[in-house]
Design goal:
The protein has one domain. It is 57% helix and 0% strand. The chain is built from 4 helices and no strands. Helix 1 crosses helix 2. It is elongated and about 50 Å long. It starts with 20 loop residues before the first helix and ends with a helix. 0% of the residues are buried.
């Protein structure tokens, strides 16, 4: 008999960051006030920041810096991209 498990959690990335002492202290206190740890507070803050970035800002940046963004993609490319985004 075989047992299979399926992971449903999102892909995650790791990044080492360096914080100034004052930033570390301030964020640690804020995390304690919220009843969480520093790592969770930073992750939550970055996730919220990412969610709040306006699509129009991203699109403007892409048009300005990546001219190939002006090309119309095929239905197949659009579908592949949407699948990659998890839409």
């Amino acid at each position: 008999m075989f047992t299979y498990s399926i992971k449903t959690e999102k892909m995650r990335k790791r990044k080492i960051i360096e914080l100034d002492d004052s930033t570390f202290k301030i964020l640690s206190i804020k995390a304690a006030q919220e009843g969480t740890n520093l790592k969770s507070l930073i992750e939550k803050s970055l996730n919220e920041l990412a969610e709040n970035i306006q699509d129009s800002e991203l699109y403007s940046y892409l048009l300005k810096n990546y001219h190939e963004g002006k090309e119309i993609v095929s239905s197949k490319e659009k579908e592949e991209f949407e699948n990659w985004l998890g839409l």
